[in-house]
Design brief:
The chain has 3 helices and 4 strands; from the N terminus they run E-H-E-E-H-E-H. It is of the alpha+beta class. The chain has one domain: HPr-like (Histidine-containing Protein, Chain: A). It has a 4-stranded antiparallel sheet, with no helix packed on it. A hairpin with a 2-residue loop joins strand 2 and strand 3. The longest helix is centred in the N-terminal third of the chain and has 12 residues. The protein is globular and about 30 Å long. It starts with a strand and ends in a 5-residue tail after the last helix.
Length: about 80
């Protein structure tokens, strides 16, 4: 598992984030406080408090390329 803290304060950044995660075969979760959503679900992401930092958890092998792509959202 790989974990990182990100910020998705604008709708355009959410759209970019989902475009990256949808092309990954790994399981990717997004956490905000006690809430956990599938990071490939744009509706799920918009249900979170995007004004706060979010935690991304990536489960799977060979997902370094996704971590690299998501690093532009790092907090």
């Amino acid at each position: 598992m790989k974990s990182m803290t990100i910020s998705l304060e604008m709708a355009q950044r959410v759209k970019e984030f989902v475009a990256i995660t949808q092309n990954c075969e790994c399981e990717i979760l997004l956490k905000s406080g006690k809430y956990v959503v599938d990071a490939k679900s744009i509706l799920g992401i918009f249900s979170l408090d995007l004004s706060q930092p979010l935690t991304v958890e990536i489960y799977g092998d060979n997902c370094e390329d996704v971590v690299e792509k998501l690093s532009k959202f790092a907090k």
